[in-house]
Design brief:
Blueprint: H1 2-11, E1 15-21, H2 25-36, E2 41-45, E3 60-61, H3 73-89, E4 94-104, H4 111-124, E5 133-135, H5 137-143, E6 152-163, H6 167-180, E7 184-187, E8 189-197, E9 200-207, E10 213-223, H7 229-236, E11 242-255, E12 262-267, E13 273-279, E14 282-286, E15 290-292, H8 301-314, E16 328-339, E17 356-360, E18 365-369, H9 376-389, H10 407-419, H11 434-442, H12 446-455, H13 471-480, H14 486-493, H15 496-499, H16 502-507, H17 511-519, H18 523-534
Helix pairs in contact: 2-6, 2-9, 13-17, 17-18
């Protein structure tokens, strides 16, 4: 864990332009934008990067079609433009996908009315995606045989986008981008609050791993703590125009229900949108939308029953899905930004995920409320503008801080991969060629993996059975991805823990080797920690000495 140790050492060595508290999508995008444009940035996260809301999304990048009903066209326009921008900026990762929506008899709108709305949605999005189409019940059945159309009036198909890999991986790549630009980022470091002293923020931090404390000095403090923004503002004495209310959402990961690469969308019994989403060899179903009072949540029997009941009513499966089919779950809260003087009780289910940036210029403090993956590039750019207005120098204001490497680099990677016959090494059961997968996940760093595979062909072998992660990817994660606990790799840098059940992971002959690569002499302790946590036990671990 040399990368983490070296970054902790850097935290106390200087005065940073900006300290960011929180490593979800808002904090990660802000760090990448500021570092990419030349500001001196540090980011701390009390758990792992993307360890909360940002790892529990639907993996969808969408323009907010549900806000068409509330006629929030300005928000839809902004989100559609953001979606289009992400598709163009990350063509290997953010990809267009079709949504097939089935409308039940007696629904509040006729399918043709909604189909017309999907055309308006397409036009608001500049006609960037494939055109919508109307489907009669028979056409729905022909397109997707598992959909039960007995009670359907019809439906429509339109396009949005999805993340080919998981959401947490997408977020981490922004953190990695900030590191590449010279920023400092550390996971498992908790902010205990800060005070303003002589024109600087002095923030007290605690290393969650070994309990050590330190302090960081910065000109600006950014609170990007996601669902805990209000709590951290209390620690720093900040009064804001916004606060959060919380909506809990869960997803169930089950065996793949259909081979078609599209999202099936339905209206659940309570009228809310409900999805069946492709996830590699699995299917993700959900979500719920339950008002909760605090961000610490878990999956309940009622949540599971709601999802299973709704999906079984709408699909004609060989047998109904039961709890025995659940491979893994996702559960998190959506932090919804509302004005501090009201709004949290009004039309809760219609509250949008749009972000709000609350600025205290006098204290050089900024809080980011709400937000979603689709809007991340806007958050990054807006934060840069706000920090500049607070007097921080931005040396490279025109630098493009996001996006995949240039096409010339991709062509060189693909050329070298073809010369060495990389795709011939692809496992027979793999979902895509090795060259495609490595480029999407690692970009320029994938060139280093080619060199490792040339030197040792064993580096192209799948290490953990039932997954699509190679030995060289584990070596890369150990060097460059700040994997501090086994869950960081299994659940966030990869999606192994989402798509492979726990028994299969534990019994995989390659898991011990993976731990050895990632943690060295801490391998056994981290292995025991992970499986103790899954059993609800406390693992007693030695200090890492960091």
């Amino acid at each position: 864990m040399q990368l983490r140790s070296s970054n902790i050492d850097k935290l106390t060595g200087e005065v940073f332009d900006v300290l960011i508290v929180g490593g979800g999508i808002n904090g990660a995008a802000a760090a990448a934008a500021l570092a990419g444009k030349g500001a001196r940035v540090a980011l701390v996260e009390r758990g792992d990067f993307a360890g909360s809301t940002s790892m529990h999304s639907s993996n969808l990048v969408w323009g907010g079609i549900k806000y068409m009903e509330s006629r929030d066209f300005a928000l839809v326009r902004k989100l559609c433009k953001s979606r289009n921008h992400l598709i163009k900026s990350y063509p290997s990762t953010v990809q267009e996908i079709r949504f097939l929506t089935t409308i039940p008899k007696g629904f509040r709108y006729h399918p043709r009315y909604l189909w017309a709305g999907s055309w308006l949605y397409w036009l608001i999005g500049n006609g960037f995606t494939r055109i919508p189409r109307f489907l009669a019940p028979s056409a729905i059945k022909q397109s997707e045989a598992i959909v039960d159309v007995a009670e359907a009036m019809g439906g429509f198909e339109y396009s949005d986008a999805y993340l080919h890999d998981n959401d947490a991986r997408f977020v981490f790549n922004f953190v990695r981008g900030a590191l590449n630009y010279g920023g400092v980022a550390v996971n498992y470091v908790e902010s205990l609050g800060g005070t303003r002293e002589n024109g600087l923020w002095v923030t007290q931090l605690r290393d969650v791993i070994d309990g050590g404390t330190l302090e960081v000095r910065s000109r600006v403090l950014i609170n990007a703590a996601g669902p805990w923004v209000d709590k951290h503002n209390a620690l720093t004495g900040q009064q804001t125009d916004y606060h959060h209310v919380y909506s809990k959402g869960i997803h169930l990961i089950v065996p793949r229900l259909t081979d078609n690469q599209r999202v099936l969308a339905f209206f659940a019994d309570d009228g809310r949108l409900f999805f069946v989403i492709p996830m590699g060899p699995r299917t993700c179903i959900g979500t719920t939308d339950t008002r909760v009072e605090k961000p610490e949540v878990g999956v309940t029997e009622d949540d599971i029953r709601f999802v299973l009941d709704n999906i079984n009513k709408r699909l004609t499966l060989e047998r109904p899905l039961t709890t025995a089919d659940i491979i893994s779950t996702r559960c998190g809260v959506r932090p919804l930004a509302v004005r501090a003087n009201g709004g949290g009780e009004r039309d809760f289910l219609q509250l949008s995920r749009k972000h709000a940036i609350d600025i205290n210029g006098e204290d050089a403090h900024l809080s980011i409320f709400g937000g979603k993956l689709t809007d991340c590039l806007n958050v990054g750019d807006e934060v840069v503008d706000a920090v500049r207005d607070m007097g921080v120098s931005i040396p490279h204001p025109g630098h493009r801080w996001y996006g995949e490497p240039p096409q010339e680099v991709r062509h060189e990677f693909m050329h070298q991969a073809a010369l060495m016959g990389l795709d011939v090494m692809t496992a027979p059961e793999a979902s895509e060629p090795l060259s495609t997968r490595l480029w999407r996940r690692y970009g320029t760093h994938a060139l280093e993996m080619l060199e490792e595979i040339r030197e040792d062909p064993r580096q192209a072998e799948v290490l953990i059975e039932g997954t699509e992660y190679l030995r060289c990817e584990l070596r890369h994660a150990q060097r460059r991805e700040m994997v501090t606990r086994l869950e960081d790799f299994l659940r966030r840098r990869s999606k192994i823990a989402l798509v492979v059940d726990e028994v299969a992971i534990r019994d995989s002959p390659g898991l011990r080797e993976a731990c050895a690569i990632l943690f060295g002499d801490q391998a056994e302790a981290r292995y025991e920690e992970y499986f103790a946590a899954s059993r609800g036990e406390e693992a007693v671990l030695p200090s890492t000495g960091e």
